[in-house]
Design the sequence.
């Protein structure tokens, strides 16, 4: 039995409480300064407002002021903040980390630093003060996982990746249980890029759903599924290419982190709803408004990828006609262009 | 403008009439001896009974007795019979083929000949009499394509594969149009194995849909999608492994023929409905009965794969624990075992 602190009380961070409790651990869920309502509700014994479920009995919630005390006796720390919260998390955790203390994170995103595409486990480590960083290698958790299913006891397989194989193994041993099946990968860059890009590409796979409705088609087995699946296959191909450009293993795009996570993300989440809206042709602003304030990771990722693609093209590393789908998705979602997936340039 | 004869008036064979007509060709759809009702209906000016649409004006239908006359002036021949109809098609076409005459086929399936897994373009060629076979290399059409969408003008990308690159290019030039986008692949074995196996694996991806209903879950964004997507990723991994064992290029499993076709097959067709029934736990016989006589390619493919897996394992080419998903699908669909996808042995 271990004592695990989860920092960040959003959907996925909180959902980690279930496999941890199943594995016999106790959990302290520390909200960020933005999670006040969640923490208050859980402390009143109410269901977690975002998951609609009461936390497992082995889990409690607390505000950020209790992070210090919670970490004092912790056997592992999980980071579940939003990508924008990484600097805050690094600052809050500085001094509480040590090389032998398992540290894992479910936050997904990418950073373009002007010359390379960086992933968030590295960004978290690099955001730590020098003294706190020594020997700390965060382990990323990726792969197909809908938080609401994890919290409801659905069987789930994820990928753990990190630069220290020993740290990955410690996290795997901590998390593995009857319903939760973590697999290890050494390809940090590849796994994390797929985990981030899948949001952009899931948007693309949802475009034909809206396009079909806009032309009067009904949902069902006859729609624009042929186009959807061509986009799906092209998305996997482009993810592999981006991973390769960033120095990762293209094979990650063909496994749980790529194909698997892309597939699960197409199952009715906010990215798919946003893509459907864009496919309906309502335009970017109304599509965003229709999502009523939901975080749209796809927009963040497309914005990060833009300077990366420009730099790779300027250097000759990437051809002008490569990644036509990603170019189109950026044009639609960032520049409000009319959705018209460029199938003629797929697999060219 | 070319004159194209399509042999076999089933869903997919008939649907080829649309891209061919779009590309400016005329089509004669020759029914097999089993297609009498379809041919009669089309000749009476009624909609194609299986597609629910009238054929394009450039297409006519005729019974098998008119095959000889139709082929006399043909510029290309397409084979759209069922896999069981390949010997009949070979016999009917013997003497009407020549090396320069484009010959393509949408029939999918595999044959285990006791020592190797063979695909249907090769089986068709081998079924021709010696004199008729010389220089004839059928081109297979694979990839994500729902026939009913193709016939309704949905954009579609497919893969063409064959042992003669010149033959593949002739077929590509014949078929390519504004809405229909064929891509060429030299990996006949890999593409054709994926095209056949996708039916078996799509069955597996549908199991959790029924399992979720059986435990009282509703359809929607919270179900057993995490399990479905783990199965999807494992399916792609296993398809790549089978392709490798058969001497093909595992990369085909990661593209249109593998990932793309698997994705489209999960969109509500009969394989998915059969998998859902099995997932509900009604048992094999009732699941087959619920499909009311629909052809279940997944059962054919699982039956063909069984002796292949046994032989590969006996020779040591395949480990006992490899392909756990395919083993489970055969146990469920052929032996009536209880569905319980062995996620613990995925990506092991």
Sequence:
């Amino acid at each position: 039995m271990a004592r695990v602190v989860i920092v960040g009380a959003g959907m996925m961070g909180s959902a980690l409480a279930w496999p941890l409790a199943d594995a016999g651990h106790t959990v302290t869920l520390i909200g960020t300064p933005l999670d006040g309502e969640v923490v208050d509700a859980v402390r009143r014994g109410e269901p977690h407002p975002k998951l609609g479920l009461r936390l497992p009995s082995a889990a409690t919630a607390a505000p950020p002021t209790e992070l210090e005390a919670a970490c004092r006796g912790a056997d592992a720390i999980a980071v579940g903040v939003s990508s924008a919260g990484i600097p805050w998390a690094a600052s809050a955790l500085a001094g509480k980390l040590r090389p032998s203390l398992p540290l894992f994170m479910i936050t997904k995103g990418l950073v373009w630093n002007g010359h390379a595409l960086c992933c968030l486990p590295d960004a978290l480590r690099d955001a730590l003060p020098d003294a706190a960083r020594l020997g700390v290698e965060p382990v990323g958790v990726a792969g197909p996982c809908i938080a609401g299913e994890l919290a409801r006891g659905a069987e789930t397989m994820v990928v753990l990746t990190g630069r220290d194989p020993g740290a990955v193994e410690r996290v795997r041993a901590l998390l593995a249980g009857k319903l939760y099946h973590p697999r290890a990968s050494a390809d940090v860059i590849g796994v994390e890029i797929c985990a981030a890009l899948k949001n952009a590409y899931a948007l693309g796979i949802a475009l034909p759903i809206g396009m079909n409705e806009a032309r009067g088609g009904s949902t069902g087995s006859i729609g624009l599924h042929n186009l959807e699946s061509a986009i799906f296959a092209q998305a996997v191909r482009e993810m592999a290419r981006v991973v390769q450009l960033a120095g990762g293993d293209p094979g990650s795009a063909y496994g749980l982190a790529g194909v698997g996570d892309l597939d699960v993300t197409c199952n009715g989440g906010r990215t798919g709803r946003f893509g459907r809206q864009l496919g309906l042709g309502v335009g970017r602003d109304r599509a965003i408004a229709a999502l009523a304030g939901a975080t749209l990771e796809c927009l963040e990722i497309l914005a990060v990828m833009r300077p990366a693609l420009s730099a790779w093209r300027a250097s000759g590393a990437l051809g002008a006609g490569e990644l036509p789908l990603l170019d189109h998705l950026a044009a639609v979602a960032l520049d409000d262009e009319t959705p018209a997936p460029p199938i003629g340039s797929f697999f060219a």
